Here is the input.
Amino acid sequence: MSPYRVIAIACLLLTCLVSPWLFGSVQVPVQVGLWVLLAIGVAATAADPFTSPAVPSRVPWLFWVACGAVVVGGLQLVPLPLPLLAACSPVASELWQVPRDLSFAPISLHPAETRYHITLLLGGLAGIWIAHRCLATDRARRLFLAAVLINGILLTVVGVAHYLTASESGVILWYRKLTQGGRPFASFVNRNHAGGYLNLCLAAGFGLVLWQGLARPRGNGGPESPISRWGPAAGTAVVFLGVLATLSRSAVLGLAGGMALLMGVVLIKRVKGVAAIPLLILAVAATALMWTERGAMLVDRFHRVSTDDVQGVGSRLEHWQDALRGVPDFLTLGSGLGTYRFIYRRYQDSFQDGWYYHAENQYLEALLEGGLIGLGLLLGCLLVAACGLWRLLRRAESPVVLALGVTGGFAFVSQALQSCFDFGLY
Here is the structure.
C-alpha cells in the first residue's frame, strides 16, 4: 500500500473516530479541523501515483446524487431579480423586501447558514471519495470495521460508567456542565445522536462477526486466539447494550430494523455456523440491560409514546403539523439549507416551550429547506444506496462480500428509520 493511501485512510479513520468524542463535533472549530483532515485525505488520493486494480473505475452513483444537493444549495444562494424570485418563491421575495428595498435577492432566507451547510455536504462528499479510492482491499475494510467497532465499545463503556458514577445530572463526561439542557450519553449532548452513531458501530460489529465466522482461517492454519475468535461477537454485544442504554427510542427503532434485515439475510442466504450469534448477542444484551434500572427506564419511555410526550400539547407531532403548513410556500427549491429553525415559527400554530433547530424528522426538514427537489435528492441517495446494497447481498459469492453487505444494510436501515424521528442523516 502506498504512503499516500495510508495517509488518506488515516485521515478518514480519524474523522470517523475522533468526531464523536468532541461532543459530536457540533462546534465550528472542531468541524474546521475535520475539514482539514478530509482535505488532506482527498489531496493524498489525488497525489497517489498507484491505482489498485481493486478500485472501481466508475465513481459511485451516490457521490453524484449527493453532488446534486451541493448544486441545489448553490442555486439557493444565487441573487435573482425580484420578479423571478417571486415566481420561484413568493414568500422569500416578500420577506427579503421587508427590511429594505432590493432589486436582487437569493432564495435562501439565511445565506450564511446555507453556505455553512454546503461545506458540511462537501465534507461528506470528501469522505465518500476517500472511501471509494482507498477502502478497496479486504485488509483496509477489515481495519476500518474493527476501528469503528472498538470506538463504539469505548463510547458504551464511558456512557454507562458516567451514568453509574456521575454525581449530578446535566453534566457530560463528568466535567462539562450543559448550559442549554440536553440528555447526554458518553460524549454526546443528545442521546439520540449517541444511539445513531452506536448503530453504525453495531453495523460494523455484525459485519465483522459474519466475516470472522464465515471466512476460512489464514496463515499457517494454527488455532485462533480467543480474542480473534470471540472478540467481534463480544464487542458487538457491548455496543448492542450501549444502543439500548442510551434510552433513545428512535435509535432502538433503528436497531430493530437493522436486526430484522440481518436475520432476514441470515435466513435467506442460509448462513451456517454463525446464524445463532446475532440472536445470542440480542439475548445477552437485552437480559443484561433488563437487570438494571436503565432497562426499566427504557421500557417506561416506550410506554409514554402514546401520551403527551409524543402526541399531546407541545408534542413532536404538533410541531410536524405546524411545519407542514409551510411546505406549499417553499415547494420548489425550499427556504434554503439550514434555515429550518428560522422559518418554521412563521407557521407555528401550537404551543411549544422550546425552539426547534431541526424538525426531528429528516425528510420533513429536507422538504422545507430544499423543496421537492431537495427531498427528491435525499430519497435518491437512499434509493441509490439501497440498490447497491441489494446487488451486493444478492450476488454475495464470498463471506467478505456478504459481511460488507450486512454492514451496509444494517447501517442503511437503522439510519433511515431513525431519521423519521431525528436528524441523523443530517
About this structure: The mean pLDDT is 85. Residues 69 and 271 are 39 Å apart (CA to CA).
